[in-house]
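note to self: dont lose this again. the chain is below, predicted strucutre after it. 309 aa total, dont forget to put it in the shared folder this time
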Amino acid sequence: MTEHRLFPYLLILAAGMIWGATFSLALIATGQGAHPLALSAWQVAVTAAFFLVACLLSRTTLFNFRNLRHYLVLALVGITAPNLFYYYAASHLSAGILAITVSTVPLFTYAIMLTLRFESVIARRLLGILLGMIAILLLVIPDQGLGSDDASFWILLVILCALLYAVENVYISRGVEPDIDIRELLFGSNLLATAIQFPLAIYLGINEPWDWLASDAGLAIIGIAIGSGFAYSMFFYSIKASGPVFASQCAYIVTISGVIWGIMIFSEQHSTWVWAAVVVMLLGLVLVNPDEEEEGKDANKTAGAEISP
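---
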């Protein structure tokens, strides 16, 4: 059955293209001057609503107080902090550069796992990390013509987001019980993130009313939230259907599609340094991704779900 064999490829292709598009949507969302906290608060609220519906339709547990610690860690480390950093930086960078920098997550994940001795030292994967660091230098050191005197600072801020996503991945891989449904985990963490961010926005006098969602920026945030929800679902289904090593290839599609979406939507033009960074980053991802015999279940979170802003 040819269609059946092709289905996993279609899943990671669709998930990667959706995640790649979120970088361009982020530029639209930040382009109208809304505060990053307002953007993040509405994103997590819509994402929580998405997974609420997903849980209800599948009759999955909505909220288990025994998992409150997991929800809270993900809400702070994997959602609130990186979202804010990302939206602060997004208006200063191009969609292509956002895609390249956020795609360092698999590299950081392996580096953290190695540092904590959860992974064995593999020369090929160490070379992948080195290539990833070279790709970052290719973005930070040359003048990329981004129209911002502190562009390198914003690139490093997005890389900090990637580092936080990698910390989240390691926590999910090592600290979260494997029998917890991902829909419950994502609903609970986004619900707590909403409960944290909206009161903080109100306290700081940052307010975007609900009808703001009908603006271009609001629609972009809805697109990010719902698109990422579908991408999460397809990615984790591909893990169950074809294994984590196959699913990790989604990271390549995210990187490439993120650059292409930026060119198509914003007519972005990149320097030779940026294209060199794309090539070096993709080579790094090829080397750092595990072979089936090297990695089993612990590889689940090394590339993919963390890509979304």
